[in-house]
Amino acid sequence: MVVLAVLGGYAAVSLAGRVAAARRGTRASGQGDWREGEAYFRSLAEAAPEMMWTAGSDGAHDFFNKRWHDYTGLTVQQSSGQGWNSALHPDDLAESETRWEQSLRSGDPYEIEYRIRSASDGAYRWFLGRANPVRDEQGRIIKWFGTVTDIEDQKHNLQILEQQIRERTEELADANTRLQEEMWEKDSARRELDHQNEKMLQELTERSQRATLLAKMGEVMQTCITKDEVFAAALGFAPRIFPARRGAVALLNDRRDLVEIAGSWHDCRLPEKVFEANRCWALRTGHPHLVVAGDTTAPCAHAVGVQNTYLCIPILAQGEALGILHFQATDEAPTLADSELSFKTTFAGQVGLSVANIRLREALRTQSIKDPLTGLYNRRYLEEMLEREIRRAVRAEQALGILMLDLDHFKKFNDTYGHDAGDTVLRESATFLAKSIRAEDIVCRFGGEEFVVILPTANLKASCARAERIRSRLREMTVLHQGQSLGMVTVSVGVAALPQHGTSPKELLAAADAALYRAKKDGRDRVVAAEPPQMPEAESPAIGTRAQ
To answer: Averaged over 412-437, what is the pLDDT?
Structure first.
């Protein structure tokens, strides 16, 4: 490259000097020098391995050495003027022409990288095109001398180097990106861990608060004495235990075929206030039933129209369903997390356990105050209730009636038809008495075939009338045992009243018992009112002495 540059510069200087000498000398000698200089330049140009060219001051190319013609395949005529541009790559042509025009206008050296097509294979290679102006003594451009240097290898090496630089830069960028990502991931993991720890702490705090509320609810429910109190407590605690959930409590009726909404919290919306029990999957299966929003697999028919996720949990007491707890997710908290299921089932279980305890207490109390054969209250309960009703009547200055009834000839039923038949007579008579009294009246089995009825607010006259109505209607009752009629059942009744016959349970029962004794003594199947308490005590029989 250095040799070619020196060669080109020498040729240009020589050519310029000869042109100047030709102008100073005679025309004949000048023409000879010019031709001699031009021939000398062309000899040098043809000997050079580079492509070389010249152009006039107007920019029209007038010479290319053989190297150019061999490489491009263009003839002298095709290369003259601006024809040489046809060898350039189309993408480089506009830039080449623009720079050449700028050099012609300014006189500055021309330099550009472009691609030239090879005539041998049609491929393009990169070349460096350069041109310098040749000036006369007055500084005017009289010629342009240019070279075309093959830089394909340099370009390729430069591209390789640039590619390596890009790759290295990309590697460094990737490494930096990975480092930043690792730092971000670590920072994100730390933040996530902090968030999880905070969330876990919050959940533990909430769970602790819920557990405390559940324990407190359990304590309250243990002191409840009715189912209504249990469900009222449940509806009171539910909004505090489940503050982010809507919910409702629905209870089965006595026939166990309908479910009615007993109460709700947080504006829980259910389309039906009363629905059939089989419309809830939780009541069907006996297990919690979750329906995710949009899932049409097995929705509860009683929740048609509920758009959010909901959960139904059966309330069970000793294996028997009492109703359901219904929970609904909200738009702010659209899911029902599995972690909450244990609280919800515990909540339902606590309600069911409390109801079961109440049932057990009621069953134990019933066993203690109910006669197992007739289902009526027993003598123990009679004594409690009679004392209570006497105090109430005395405070209110009201009357109170007592009926003591004894089935006539009861021993005959046992002797004739057997004890099972006698039990049947007792049960049927008890059922009849229970249906013949008012809601506020109390009927008890006093012992054997004797019954006592307490009539609050009834005076002696009203009590006798009630006794007579019972006696007359009992005669109409038909008792069947093993498909056989046991005959007519009659009853003798003794009537006493507060305050005429006393103001204590002992006095009233004694008066009614004495009246009953007279009824049986006078022929049975009749009603007898007690006599005033001043009757000689010797004439009063002892309680429990009866003629059969």
So the answer is: 89
